[in-house]
Amino acid sequence: MGKTLFDKVWDSHVVRKIEDGPDVLFIDRHMIHEVTSPVAFLGLKNRGVKVLYPERTFATADHNTPTINQHLPVEDPLSANQLRALEENANEHGISHWGLGHEKNGIVHVVGPEYGITLPGATIVCGDSHTSTHGAFGAIAFGIGTSEVEMVLANQCIMQPKPKSMRINITGELSFGVTPKDVALFIISKLSTSGATGYFVEYAGEVFQNMSMEGRMTVCNLSIEMGARGGMIAPDQKTFDYVQGREFAPKGADWDKAMEYWNTLKTDDDASYDKELTFDGSEIEPMVTYGTNPGMGMGISQTIPTAAEMDAAEASYKKSLGYMGFAEGENVKGKQVDYVFLGSCTNGRIEDFRAFASVVKGRKKADHVTAWLVPGSHQVEAAIKEEGLLDIFTESGFQLREPGCSACLAMNDDKIPAGKLAVSTSNRNFEGRQGPGSKTILASPLVAAASAVMGVVSDPRELIA
Hints:
Blueprint: H1 5-11, E1 14-17, E2 23-26, E3 29-32, H2 38-47, E4 57-60, H3 77-93, E5 96-98, H4 108-114, E6 123-126, E7 140-143, H5 146-155, E8 157-160, E9 164-171, H6 180-191, E10 199-204, H7 206-209, H8 213-221, E11 230-232, H9 237-243, H10 252-262, E12 275-280, E13 287-289, E14 297-299, H11 314-324, E15 339-342, H12 344-347, H13 350-360, E16 370-373, H14 378-386, H15 389-395, E17 421-424, E18 439-442, H16 445-454, H17 461-464
Parallel strand pairs: 3-4, 3-6, 4-5, 6-7, 9-10, 9-12, 10-11, 15-16, 15-17, 17-18
Antiparallel strand pairs: 1-2, 2-8, 13-14
Helix pairs in contact: 2-5, 6-8, 13-16
C-alpha cells in the first residue's frame, strides 16, 4: 500500500521506534521565542548540557514585545526579563537571535518562511501551538511544551506517538469575497474544536491548490483550533518558487538535491487515510465567530444557531453567548464594533494588508473604532510602505504599528478593554484571550476592514462588489 504525504515525512525522520511507545523523531528546525524557552534553557544549565545543533535553532522575540516605540527600553519588567533571557541564552549557545531592533525580528511563524528556514519535507517544532503554520510547505510542524523544548535543544529529537491521518478535501472554487481565513473557520465550524483530535491533517483539492502560499499558511495555522496535531499541504511549484533564493534555503547543487526529494512529497494514489472529508468550496461565505471558541462560527449572513442545532450542552452554550452579549437566533452582522485587530501569525502577512487596504481605500475609519494594524515582521512592514499601502491606511485614518504578536494574546500593552467587542484576524476567541473581559469575533482581513470603516460587523462583499 502507498504512503500519504504525512507518512513519508514522518517515517523518514524516525530515529527509533519504541515498542508500544512513541517514536523518537529527528527535528530539522527548532524555533524558539522569549516565553517558552527560559525554563528550558535553565534545565540545560542545571544539567550542564549544551545545545546540540545551534545552527538548527532560531530565536526571535515576538509574544510580549511592544508594537510602538520598540527603540525604547521595554517597560514591563516580566517582558524585559524574558527578552533579556532569550538574548543571553541564544548568545551563550551560539543560536541565531533576532531580538527587538533586529531587521529580521518578527512573529516566529512569519519570519520562518520569509527567510527560508521553513522547508518542504522538514520537521519543525516550536514552543507555540500555531507552529502548524509551517505545514503549508509540506512540512510536519507542531507545537511543543517547555520540557520538550529542552529535549530538542539537548538532542535535536523528540518522543512523539504517531498521530492518525486525515485528509480534508475542498473542491471547486471560492466565491467572491471568501478568503483562506474563511475556509479555515468554515472547516472548524463543521468539525468543532475537537473534531480532528489525534489526527494530522492533509488539506487537498482545487481550493488549496489555487491558494497562495500565504493563504495556505493561514489555513495550516488554524489546524490546531480543531484539535489536530498539525496540518499540511503537499508542496508544488508555488511552494518551490516561494522558497527559492531565500536566505536559509538550499543553494546551487544543494537546491537540486533538495528538489529531488521535494518532488516525491505527495500522497501516493493507493494510500489511505484514517478519515477523509470533502466539502464544496462554493458553500463557503465570509465567516464570523459568535461564541468563545473558534468552532462557534457561521457565515456572516446567517443567524446564531440554537444549542440544539449545534448539538451542544445548553448551559455552557448559553454561557458562551452570554459572555459575548449575544443570543440564539440573532445576527452578528450589524453589531457595534469597538476594536479591530489586523495581524498575528494567522493574518499578519503582506497579502492580509493588501486585502485590508482594498476595502478601506477611499473610505474613513469609523470614529468610535480603535484599530491596531500590526505587521508580522519588518519585511511585511517594509512591503506595506513600498507598495503604498501605508498611504492608503493613513488617508483612511489608520495607523501602522511595529511587528509583534500584539493583541492576539495580549501579553503586551495591546489589550482589548473589558466589555469591548473586537473583530480580530487572529486565531482564538477564548474568554479574555485579547484582554480580561474582552469579547472577540474572529474574521478575515476583509471582514475586519469592512467592520472598521462601517463601525459595525459588516459583510465586505457589500463594499467591494
